C-alpha cells in the first residue's frame, strides 16, 4: 500500500506496525522461558469489608521482570500469552504459587485471575483440584476471578467447568463487571459468588451521576441475587464513604492497599490493621 500511495505518514505507520509485530513476536518467545528463568513473581493486593475495614482476602497479580526490558505490565503480556497459549502454563504457575503462599498464611481468601484460555481446557477443574491437594490450601480459601469475555467462547463448557469448581468448594468472582459484554444473562447462568464492579464506575462515583446510578443498580442486583459486590479501584476516602452509604460489601484499591510483594503471615498481620477503616 505504501507504494501505491506515496504518503510518508502511511510508510511511517507501516514501519510502526512492523516494529509492534516484531516486539510481540519477541515477547511471545520470551514468555515461554520466563518461568524457568524465574522472571515471574506475584504481588498481592488486599480486599476489605467496607463497613469494618476487616481484611477479607488478597488478589494475586502477576508481575514479569524481563531480564532486558525490566517490568512489563500484565495488560501488555497477558494478551500475548493468551494468543500463543503459554497462558495455560503461566496460569498454572500463578495458581500453584498463590495457593502455596496462601497456605502458609494464617487465614484469609486468595483471589486468582483466570484466563478464558485456561477455562476452555477440558482438564481445568482437575488442575485446580490437584493444586489444592498439592499445596494443602483449603478450597474455601480460594476464589477464581473470571471476566465476562472469558466466558463467551464456549459457554456450555465454561458453565460445566465452573460448576465443577464450585463443587470443590472454590468461590468464583466475575471480574471487571460492567466494563465489557455485561449481560444479566451471564449473572443468571453462571454460579458466581462475588461481583467485582469495574473500577471505571468507582472512578466516577464522586462527580458522575450516571456512574453512581449504575453502582447503585449493581448493588441492588447483587442484593437481590444474594451475591456480594466488591468495588475495584477505590482511590479516595470519599469514594469509600459513598460505597459505605450505598451498602457496598467489599472494596479494593490503592487507598486501601497497593499491590505488594510480601504475602505470608507477616503481611496478613500488618493488613489486619487496615490503613483505612470507616468502622468508627
Ligand atoms: P484485574 O484483575 O482487574 O486487576 C486489577 C488491576 O487494577 C491491577 O492491575 C491492579 O494493580 C490495578 N489496581 C488496583 N487498585 C487500583 C486503583 O485503586 N487504581 C487503579 N488505577 N488501578 C488499580 P495489574 O496488576 O496491572 O493487572 C492488570 C490486569 O491484568 C488484571 O486486571 C488482570 O485482568 C490481568 N492479570 C493480572 N495478573 C494476572 C494473572 O495472574 N492471570 C491472568 N489471566 N490475568 C492477570
Ligand atoms: Mg482480577
Ligand atoms: Mg478487575
Ligand atoms: Mg482488569
Quick tags:
280 residues, alpha/beta, eight-stranded mixed barrel, 11 helices, 9 strands, 19% strand, globular, binds ligand C2E, binds magnesium ion, Cyclic di-GMP phosphodiesterase Gmr
Strand content: 15-25%
* Structural class by sheet pairing and helices: alpha/beta
Most strands sheet = 8 strands, mixed, barrel
Query: What small molecules accompany the polymer chains?
Result: ligand C2E, magnesium ion
N- and C-termini, Cα separation: 66 Å
H/I helix tally: 11
What is the helical fraction, as a range of percent? 40-55%
Radius of gyration based on Cα positions: 20 Å
Low-pLDDT stretches:
264-275
Strand order of the largest sheet: 1-2-4-5-6-7-8-9
Q: Order of SSEs, N→C?
A: HEEEHHEHHEHEHEHHEHEH
Give the strand tally.
9
Domain EAL: 24-273
Protein name: Cyclic di-GMP phosphodiesterase Gmr
Task: Explain what this protein looks like in three dimensions.
The protein has an eight-stranded mixed beta barrel. The chain has helices at 8-34, 74-84, 87-103, 116-119, 124-135, 155-167, 184-189, 199-204, 209-225, 237-245, 265-271, and strands spanning 40-49, 55-66, 70-72, 109-113, 142-147, 171-177, 194-197, 229-231, 250-251. It contains eleven helices and nine strands. The protein is of the alpha/beta class and 280 residues long. Helix 1 (8-34) crosses helix 2, helix 3 (87-103) runs parallel beside helix 5 (124-135) and helix 5 (124-135) runs parallel beside helix 6 (155-167).
